[in-house]
Structures are given as structure tokens and as C-alpha cells.
Amino acid sequence: MVGMSIQLFLSLIVPFALIIYGRKKGWLSWKAFGVGLLIFVLFSQVLEKMLHFLVIDPSGTSLKGTSSVWAFVAYGALAAGVFEEIGRYVGFRFMLKNNRSYGDGLSFGLGHGGMEAVLIGAFSAVNMMVISHLVETGQFEQIASSLPATQVEMLKTMLNQPDWMYVLGGIERTFAIVIHVALSLLVLYGVRKGQFRYVVYAILIHTLIDVVPALYQVKIISNVWVIETIFAFLAIASLVFIRRIAEKF
Questions:
Q1: Residue pair 202/85 in contact by the 8 Å Cβ criterion
Q2: Model pTM?
Q3: Rounded CA gap, 35 and 95, in Å?
Q4: Which of 15, 59, 87, 145 has its CA 20 to 30 A from that of 21?
Q5: Rg of the chain, C-alpha, whole Å
Q6: Contact 77, 207 (CB under 8 A)
Q7: How far apart are the C-alpha atoms of 56 and 75, rounded to whole Å?
């Protein structure tokens, strides 16, 4: 429960702290922030999930019609890259015609990554807290009888994780926000220049990044520290990019 609480705290406090920081520094744009949030929900949580429903097996670890692990990894990574980066392009190109400054890029990325932190990090922590309570009170088995066996097994695996795994989940959300801000600035730069190739670059980068968690999901990489170390380096590289691209705006 302590680990879950820390994950919940980090997933909420980091976006909130960045919002306060952005307002203090004067670069926060509520419009760009809201569009970034909306684009994430629409393209990642609605449109992409609709395609997943059609393509991914109910087990959640393979595609329908093939048991190839590599096909699953390639599809999952590419789908995330295409939907989220095209979403960013649509947001900047059509919804933020008069909001294309450096601060707008930062705000869009914060809205996009912050919403992901809340939905994936915070909601996940709350769900696991509820399930943990059900286990402690002896009510979990009653609910488990109505769930698919694969889902029950996944929940039990998550409950048996050590507390530091949940802490890592919260830290990972922080890394993800930084990466989303960097990709948002890359796409925005492409929109400002009128060159779609920068969107393609963002898709390719996003796809390569998402290969890492996909490999962990199918257990090709089993060491979580390898995954988090890679994400840490990606976050650092993103920070460097965020600072350096500022002069181009």
C-alpha cells in the first residue's frame, strides 16, 4: 500500500508541480495544455484502443491470427507512435493555429503526458489499492469468479509485486512526461516549418521508445531495471533536446 501510495502521489504531484512552474515562468498556455490533454484521450485512449480491440487477442500478449511475439511488439510500438504523433500533428496543425510558440509546445506536451500520468499511473494505483483492500477483506475471490482467468492472474501478479515496483511506476510517469514534451516540440517545429518529415521522425522515435516496454510485456526483457535505466537515459536526452530546440523558436 505504501508503494501504491507513492505511485499515486508522483503521478499526480509531478504534473501539478509542472503546471505551477509553467505559470510562474510565464510559458503555460491553458489552451495548448487542454488540447494536448484532449488529443491524448481521443487518439490514444479511444481511437488506438478501438484498433487494439480489433487486432489484439483477449490475452493482451499476442495478435489475433498469429502467436508471433515480434509481430505483437512491432504492432504495439508502431500503433502508439502513429496514433499519438499524428494526434499531436492534428492538434498543432488544426486546433492551435494561433498557439505555436515554444511555451505552447511545452504546455501541449505537459497536457498530453500529464493526462497519461493520471490515467495510467494514478488510476492504476487507485485500482490496485481497491483490489488490495478486497483481498484483505476476503471479497476478491467473489469478484474474481466473474473475471477472465488471464485478468485474474494478471491482477494477482501485480498484487504480489514488491513495493518498490510501484514506486518505479511513479518515477516512470515522470520520465514519460519529459519524453512527451520533447516529442510535442519536435512535431510543433515541423508544423511551424511546414515540413511533415518531422512528424515522421517523431513517429519513428516514439515507436522505438515503445519497443522497450513491449519487450518487457512479452518477457523478452525480464529485468525491470534495464527498462527503467533506458527510460532514464531517454528522459535525460529529451531534457537536452527541450533546452536546445528553444533557440529555434
A1: yes
A2: 0.92
A3: 8
A4: 87
A5: 19
A6: yes
A7: 9
**Bridge partners of 66?**
63
Query: How far is residue 62 CA from its own chain's centroid?
Result: 20
pLDDT 10s digits, 184-219: 999 999 999 999 999 999 999 999 999 999 998 888
- Per DSSP, the residues of 57-99 read -TTSSSBTTB--HHHHHHHHHHHHHHHHHHHHHHIIIII-TT-
Q: Would the CA dihedral through 224, 226, 231, 236 be positive or negative?
A: positive
Rounded Cα gap, residues 62 and 70, in angstroms: 9
SS3 138: coil
Which positions ≥6 away from 240 have C-beta within 8 Å? none
43 vs 27, 46, 87, CA distance in Å?
A: 25, 6, 6
